[in-house]
């Protein structure tokens, strides 16, 4: 998940927690306030009913009830029970209210109780030397409806707020990460051919400025390293080959001397062969080093893969005349553009030649099939042999320079060909897959993007 999405989600989660806590507080505060207000209204009615019950004059009693009905009105399911001033145990059992309900009443404090949506109030009313206990109950339908409306309003408001919070959080994180995306875009445009380019550092005195400067410092070090490697390849190409050529020439001259003993001739021949091996190894190492810093892209051109494979086959025929390399053209794409890649012809030829020659060598010239096909993005070259195969535990190391599989000891090699091939394929923005079974053979599949320019 992208960091900016994480920021938006974390921001939304924190806001959700705060809004939810605030909503719960508002809901319970409103619930308590409405309940208190309703209890107070019920107590006022209880007081009027109690005073009406204590009147000796019936007309005064009627006046109390008239005031109650006219000015206070009736509550839903309103009931009043008038009992003697001090309730006995039998009365308490008949009312079926908890004993704790009477504790405030003992101290002349109105008792309140809520059960099954019904509010209960017990009030002691005294007049002269007489007193009664009024037990009143009613249902606060209006308050419950208000609480339901408040709950729905809070829920709807919560979800609407979450939508707005996430949207604005997304926009906020997107704005914050604009400089980061600009850095990523600029860094992606820097490669081995334009290491002199640098990121634009804006004097913002923040982390983005520090990141840009860090990238530029790293590019400075990389540029120096690449220049050193490039200089090494150029200089070593001359410095290594010159003495090898001299030694090779001296060995040939020594072998052509008349009257030379057979032992001396054999010695010169061994020197000549070893110099050839060393020269081949040196050339391979220089090629590997060259591909390591991305080669010379100015020499790139459009390359037809089918024609390239044909030239590889011709080269294999010259080097190993007894080879059994067969090219399968049955799956060629109809669109010729899907056979064309942009690349360095010499390097691509070296890469595929390494694979084909290895297939011939390690299969003792058994049949080798080269199949060319394409998908929506890559031209695919699949080279299959019937050779000795590669042990499973060693397949992941075949692209490591100088590594040779444990079962290749009887065969001549240096462990440079496949690393060189791998570097060339990667240089062309391609990829390579290897599938192998010991004793059955190896399938080497390369993917080169035909739209890479």
UniProtKB/TrEMBL annotation:
Chief subcellular site?
membrane
Provide the top EC class. Answer: transferase
**Top-rank lineage group of the source organism:** Bacteria
How would you describe this protein's topology in the membrane?
Multi-pass membrane protein
Localization, per the record, is:
Cell membrane
Give the reaction(s) catalysed. Answer: ATP + protein L-histidine = ADP + protein N-phospho-L-histidine
* Record keywords: ATP-binding, Cell membrane, Kinase, Membrane, Nucleotide-binding, Phosphoprotein, Transferase, Transmembrane, Transmembrane helix, Two-component regulatory system
Tell me which residues make up the HAMP domain.
174-227
Record keyword Cell membrane present: yes
The molecular function GO annotations come to:
kinase activity
The residues forming a coiled coil are none
Q: What is its EC number?
A: 2.7.13.3
Q: Where is the Histidine kinase domain?
A: 235-452
Membrane-crossing ranges are 7-30, 153-172
What name does UniProt use for this protein?
Answer: histidine kinase
């Amino acid at each position: 998940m992208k960091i900016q999405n994480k920021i938006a989600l974390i921001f939304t989660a924190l806001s959700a927690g705060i809004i939810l806590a605030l909503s719960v507080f508002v809901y319970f505060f409103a619930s308590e306030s409405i309940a208190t207000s309703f209890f107070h209204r019920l107590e006022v009615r209880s007081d009027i009913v109690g005073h009406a019950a204590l009147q000796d004059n019936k007309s005064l009693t009627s006046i109390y009830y008239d005031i109650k009905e006219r000015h206070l009105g009736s509550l839903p399911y309103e009931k009043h029970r008038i009992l003697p001033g001090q309730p006995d145990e039998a009365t308490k059992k008949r009312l079926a209210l908890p004993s704790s309900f009477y504790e405030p009443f003992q101290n002349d404090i109105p008792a309140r109780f809520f059960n099954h949506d019904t509010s209960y109030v017990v009030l002691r009313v005294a007049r002269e030397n007489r007193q009664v206990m009024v037990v009143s109950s009613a249902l606060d339908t209006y308050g419950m409806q208000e609480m339901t409306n408040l709950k729905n309003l809070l829920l709807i408001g919560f979800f609407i707020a979450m939508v707005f919070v996430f949207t604005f959080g997304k926009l906020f994180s997107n704005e914050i990460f604009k400089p980061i995306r600009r850095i990523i875009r600029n860094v992606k445009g820097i490669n081995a051919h334009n290491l002199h380019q640098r990121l634009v550092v804006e004097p913002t005195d923040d982390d983005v400025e520090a990141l840009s400067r860090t990238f530029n410092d790293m590019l400075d070090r990389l540029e120096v390293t690449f220049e050193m490697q490039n200089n090494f390849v150029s200089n070593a190409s001359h410095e290594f080959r010159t003495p090898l050529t001299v030694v090779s020439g001296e060995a040939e001259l020594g072998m052509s001397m008349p009257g030379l003993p057979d032992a001396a001739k054999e010695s010169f021949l061994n020197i000549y062969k070893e110099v050839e091996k060393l020269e081949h190894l040196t050339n391979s190492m220089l090629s590997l080093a060259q591909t390591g810093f991305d080669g010379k892209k100015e020499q790139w051109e459009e390359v037809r893969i089918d024609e390239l494979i044909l030239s590889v086959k011709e080269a294999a025929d010259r080097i190993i005349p007894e080879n059994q390399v067969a090219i399968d053209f049955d799956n060629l794409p109809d669109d010729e553009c899907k056979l064309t890649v942009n690349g360095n012809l010499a390097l691509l030829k070296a890469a595929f030649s390494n694979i084909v020659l290895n297939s011939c060598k390690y299969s003792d010239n058994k049949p080798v099939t080269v199949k060319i096909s394409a998908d929506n993005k890559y031209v695919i070259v699949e080279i299959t042999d019937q050779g000795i195969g590669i042990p499973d535990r060693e397949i992941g190391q075949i692209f490591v320079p100088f590594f040779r599989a444990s079962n290749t000891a009887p065969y001549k090699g240096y462990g440079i060909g496949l690393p060189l091939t791998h570097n060339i394929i990667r240089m062309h923005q391609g990829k390579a897959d290897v599938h192998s079974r010991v004793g059955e053979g190896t399938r080497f599949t390369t993917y080169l993007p035909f739209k890479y320019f």
